[in-house]
Amino acid sequence: MTFLTPLFLLGLAALAVPVLIHLTQRERRQIVEFPSLMFLRKIPYESVKRRRIRDWLLLALRAAALALLVAAFARPFVRGSELSAAAGGPREVVLLLDRSYSMGAGDTWARAQQAARDVLGSVGPLDRVSLVLFSSNAELVLRSSADASRVSAEIDRAEPSSGSTRYAPALKLASSLLAESSLPSREAVLVSDFQRAGWQPDEAFRLPAGSAFTPVLVETSPARNLSVTPLSIERVSAENQERVVVTAGVSNRGSTPADVQMTLEVDGRAAQTARVQVAPASAAATTFPAVTLAAAPLRITTRIPEDALAADNAFHAVVRPSEVLPVTLVGAGGRGDSDLYLTRALSIGDRPRFQVTTHQAEGLAPEALARTRVVILQDLPLADATSARLRSFVEGGGGLVVALGPRTSLPPDADWVPVVVGGLDDRTRGAAAKLSGFDYGHPVFEPFRAPRSGDFSTTRIYGFRSVTARPGAVTLARFDGGTPALVEGVFGRGRVLVWATTLDLSWNDLALKPVYLPFVHQLVRRASGYAEQPGWLTVGQALDVGASTTGRVVLTPSGQRRPAGEAGQAMEVTESGFYEVRNAREGQPLQVVAANVDLSESDPARVETSAVSLAVTGQPGRGEQGEVGLVVPDAVQEQAQRLWWYLLFAGILLLIGESWLARRLTPVRR
Q1: pTM reported for the whole predicted model
Q2: 598 phi and psi, to 5 degrees?
Q3: Number of Cα atoms under 13 Å in the Cβ half of residue 548
Q4: Which site in 61, 450, 476, 636 is 20 to 30 Å from 401, CA atoms measured?
Q5: Which long-range contacts (CB under 8 A, 24 or more apart) does 485-490 make?
Q6: What does the alpha-carbon distance between residue 371 and residue 409 come to, in Å, rounded to a whole number?
Q7: What span, in angstroms and rounded, lies between the C-alpha atoms of 450 and 143?
Q8: Do 314 and 576 meet the contact criterion of CB atoms below 8 Å apart?
Q9: How far is Cα 354 from Cα 356, in angstroms, rounded to an integer?
Q10: What is the spatial distance between Cα 96 and Cα 541, in angstroms, rounded to a whole number?
Q11: Do 522 and 445 touch, CB atoms closer than 8 A?
């Protein structure tokens, strides 16, 4: 026997009140004034300060009534897992079944289905069951169903997915379902192998107060598991052809060495093989000979023979030809090195590869602008005609980088440029200016966020133009005096970046610093809107199907055709393999994307079920359970037993009996 609110037991101190009343009650003397005492008989008076307890039965009834009332408010119950919450009425049961790809190892999934069906065996006719299947996301299959056979059929129909384990979505959904239930008893049952990689404790998915939680651990059979690690792809050029060298690895999470044959598949055909020897609890890699990269993207897969867990035995990637980004450089003629550093820096780029052409301002005809993605203006006075052409170029989606110098001037109506250019700040005779106030969260400076990734503070600025950012523009860097150094603005569908000093050696020594090359590359990438397409996605990430989804379909690795309009501009990746985005009327794919499972799911390490119970209910569980055994919280057990009601009723009966007995024992005065 235990109590839900034991502090109420302090009320037992009230048992001393009847005893004190009996022991300390004094005899009251009543004084009556009488004119003469000669006719009264004298009776000896004995003074009694304390009286002995005479009515023991009456005292016992009063004390017992008080004790029962105090015990009722303390909410007693008998703790024990054999007591079912169902004794308090119908139950709302939320069954959470883990279907992450680690559940497909050996016979784990069959045993998980059997454990889920065992839960249904304890469901009564008045109980309701909700079935939730989860991996990286949670899916509500059935909601509050009274038909156990229907729930069992859905369990039999379910299969492991390619997703990894994430407990948070499932527990949040269970919490919401239990909170909406009006049934007196509520329980959540979690059937899983309890992968540690997917567990992140959070107060947000705690179950409603009084809810029971049952962790059902499905043990995975000990077996060797090898997984293919992400690929390393190196691009090389030979005989004017672009080739790729693929390096693939194998991870061995078992306790025995492995010797496996790995196959390199190119566009679905086995191209090369290699043997890989992997020591226990380690990884090994092999490099395949170079493969010629054609004009179309290559679908590359590295594969090993299937083992107990087949989902991680292959890794997919898409290798695309290097993209060429046309850049037009409009320099400030008259200085021999004005364009030298820019052209040298851009000639080294390979992601993407920059194709640089130079023009004079007068040569910026509409035909030239139509063949380029980015225009760089280096210390150039901008005429009205050139300004009008650049305005149309940016508004149509082009990119512009403006490096200000002593000769730079803009027309008064150049409101599409994100700054108002002011006077010259000459630092040649004093302390040179410094760069500061970088926005490292912006794509231009994001590569320089990490330590030792680039230092702009050593750059000395001998001259710059004072600029004022227009409304809506974003200042990405400043000089040490607070004046904007780099400002970005969006006009139409294009983007303009203004650098308030030059990109050569005339006003600063930035071109001599190691950060110059990546900085120029980031400026041009940002201005062009270039985004490097990843070689692969991970299951659970979003696939961008394009800005216009009209008439497009997505072909999944399993062969299903899904209209792109149903998912909008993005669709969640749910399978491992190659996705194709196609036009409904054309056969050639517009986009090919590789998807792979999250390899953290291959780690067999488990989280303790008691830790999950503690985070979900606020109370530690009863340990790991291999079969269904309800871990009922104290509040649920007390609510189911309702012993306080019987104690309260008994206390009231004793008070009624005490009143009747007290009236019988009190003499009637006449």
Answers
A1: 0.70
A2: -80, 115
A3: 5
A4: 450
A5: 485/435, 485/437, 486/444, 487/418, 487/419, 488/418, 488/442, 488/444, 488/526, 489/416, 489/417, 489/418, 489/419
A6: 26
A7: 48
A8: yes
A9: 6
A10: 23
A11: yes
